[in-house]
Amino acid sequence: MQVLVFIDHVDGHIKKASLEAASYGAKIAEQTGGTAEAVVLGNPADIDSLGKQGIKKLYQLQHDNLQAIDSQVYTKILEQVVQKAGSQVIVFSNNSTGKAIAPRLAVRLQAGLVSGAVALPDTSNGFTVRKNVFSGKAFAQVSVTSDIKIIALNPNSFSITEGDGATEIVPFEATVDAPKIKVTGSTKTSGKVALTEADVVVSAGRGLKGPENWKMVEELADLLGAALACSRPVADANWRPHNEHVGQTGIAIAPNLYIAIGISGAIQHLAGVNRSKVIVVVNKDAEAPFFKAADYGIVGDAFEVVPKIIDAVKKIKGIS
Amino acid sequence: MKILVCISKTPDTTAKIAFTDNNTKFAEAGVQWILNPYDEWYALVRAIELKEKDASSVIHLVNVGGTDAEPIIRKALALGGDEAIRINVTPTDPFTVATQLAEVAKQGGYDLILTGKETIDYNNGSVGGMLAEMLDIPYVALATNLQIDGTTATVKREIEGGEETVEVSLPIVISAQKGMAEARIPNMRGIMAARSKPLKVVEPVQVEPLAKAVEFGLPPAKAGVKLVSPDNVEELVRLLHEEARII
Ligand SMILES: Cc1cc2nc3c(=O)[nH]c(=O)nc-3n(C[C@H](O)[C@H](O)[C@H](O)COP(=O)(O)OP(=O)(O)OC[C@H]3O[C@@H](n4cnc5c(N)ncnc54)[C@H](O)[C@@H]3O)c2cc1C
Ligand SMILES: Nc1ncnc2c1ncn2[C@@H]1O[C@H](COP(=O)(O)O)[C@@H](O)[C@H]1O
Fold this sequence. Notes:
A: Rossmann fold; seven-stranded parallel sheet; B: Rossmann fold; binds flavin-adenine dinucleotide; binds adenosine monophosphate
């Protein structure tokens, strides 16, 4: 099948989630005997390297009207690319950009959409894709019956491949509408690493007693190159910004490592983090429900244990 | 200003997740149903706040669902909607739901249409964008703040690693998440008033899904926690380094 991957970028670089989407799209093309192509709107510095992820051809469009991500404008451009390329499967990352554009494009192309996909499509009998449902507590196999299929892949669910292929960059001309959305400002969250893209997340809850005690959590996160997260009551009490709140009603994440400090592990919290590959729990209460969902646990006081973890990590990394 | 809030019914956040009919259907027996938290806490409450500032505003609620959705519709009316429309068909997927909602939206001539970020059961987050495309109007997803000044909306939206402020003219569709508003509890007066607020039932249009869940499953259970003594934290870091290979 002909595959088209949407490449999202920020600050002049392709987002990690889009490299995952590219690797995933290339794998679909390989499995179904087609070509993996991609499209980028703008000019990030690292587009040449998309060949490594298996992208053979990259349609590139540059235009003044693309500064703000206006899903209406982007959708109409993508429609023109799909028509030119004859794409049958279109892959997005299910990140903030993908969530804004993929549903619109699905309507425009009368294409079935699977958002939140976590595995490659199964084409043995029709075309079905596995996605997370019930906030990661279950999965569904979604059957797509339309000619064109759109998949929005959850971040951190497919590994980036590193081959040695090359990509041909093809400039693309299209009708580009004037955007109706104007960006007037932006702010970065406190952490250095974006929560949904992070490999490691260090998270803390009400067990930390107050916002003044986050220093050690931040230090551990820094050491591990991790993003920071927190439980809902912590964000509700304004100890931490609300965009660090993970869980059923916060952000859902799936890092390789999730370290939960002083969090009880309520079902609504677990719903946002249970797709993490390895979960480490530090809690002074041996009966805390989080231990049932954990891979590794320490029953102990966070104020004693976390500094020890910091020391041990420093030691293993050779920092003193 | 005319506001439409799209509300959905979801299992309670603590509901037991299980499937029946050969794993093709969610097991509804004994499940408590609630208004989807994103629709209630963020979309609806923000609409109510906007109406409190501009009393000439009206808030319509719309739900695609059977009679079993009426308790959650009444709850939303008790919180503060003016009237509700129920499109009488069991929802199956975002595309058919958006198609039904678009019919109501076209007839109502709304300035602002609010949805939740996603429903907490099927986690699609697709209805808002689909609806905006059907109406050919702008869509701002994952909004954490919304201010309206005349016909201009100023919206904060989540982007990877931060937030972005955008300006856009009405009419628009917005999907709401945490930050938009603070959850409220309906009061007695609201509950009494909700009983006499209009709840109109309309019949659905004909539409077929393009993608549909055909089978469900549960993830494999965890092997069980490996406990490490607090006096031996180095051991934990060693395990993460050597066994799990992540530090
Ligand atoms: C509809 C709904 C949606 C919700 N959505 C979310 C959501 O998205 N995300 C979310 O997180 N919550 C959510 N909640 C709230 C959830 O039910 C819990 O109340 C919340 O997760 C508890 O946060 P916590 O673990 O930080 O606090 P607590 O439950 O108070 O737990 C604190 C923990 O810290 C431990 N502790 C205390 N002192 C120490 C110490 N010195 N050292 C080590 N451990 C210590 C305690 O043993 C305890 O286990 C939701 C609730 C509802 C009803
Ligand atoms: N059956 C429904 N009736 C009305 N609105 C709905 C329905 N299903 C979803 N929505 C709205 O669309 C949002 C996103 O839903 P979804 O795309 O299904 O995750 C929800 O938060 C609701 O605001």
